[in-house]
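User: structure tokens for this one?
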Amino acid sequence: MNSRLPQWLTRSTSSPQTVTLVEKMMREASLHTVCESARCPNLGECWSKRTATFMILGDTCTRNCGFCAIETGRPLTVDEDEPDRVAAIASEMGLKHVVVTSVARDDLPDEGSGQFAATILALKRAITDVIVEVLTPDFKGKRWCIRAVTEARPDIFNHNIETVERLSPAVRPQAKYLRSLEVLQAAKNLNPSLYTKSGLMLGLGETPHEVERTLKDLRLAGVDAVTIGQYLRPTMHHLPVVEYIRPEVFERYKRIGEEIGFIFVASAPFVRSSYNAAAFSEKLRKLKASVPG
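Assistant:
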């Protein structure tokens, strides 16, 4: 197909000074962001707003997904001081909604869940009224690992299903579609007070029916919020884009998601799992304020 991006997938850059400042803060604290490692197209916009998704447990993944630009290889040793550094930088940036994700750590007995828990607790200690969103790997479906994270009481438990069931083996060969649904359901069951969230990419060859089926599967698993965005090939070594989905199609999926009961749906070409996470954060604050007592 034509490799040129359609008009709706072009965007301007913004505030390079702030981007440089955020990058400097991260390097000085020896921290990583998924924004950089995954080559996110929204990096300039988000960093200009002084928001970033912290990536704990290093920048080297044990998995090799067909869509992801994060390096695969032997991971770094777990850094016990990392949770406190994340909390310190988040506080310095004045963040009220903090997103924490990680590479997959299949090499660790706890799959990295202990570091997630420690980071959540550090953030809660450091920032009053912070909303903490975790974007976790699947922990190989280990319920005790999911419990370790939910017991630290994040506000949002996010795990991306990424694509429709038919394409899942090619897109993320070391994960499983049904396992991801089970992880999301388990998180909700273990802590019914948290909000669950998931995301998927379009343009990999899925059909509209498959997208709708995935949305219904997520809702049946108790998922509260969903993000839907366009897959963009990070390098020529990754899966090709089969189709560039038009903005009006994303709008249609947004309506469908709202109709089947999600409390928050972000659906547009540049939407990513934690892009403009503050919008969901504001929704949560209003929901919490409306609960009596």
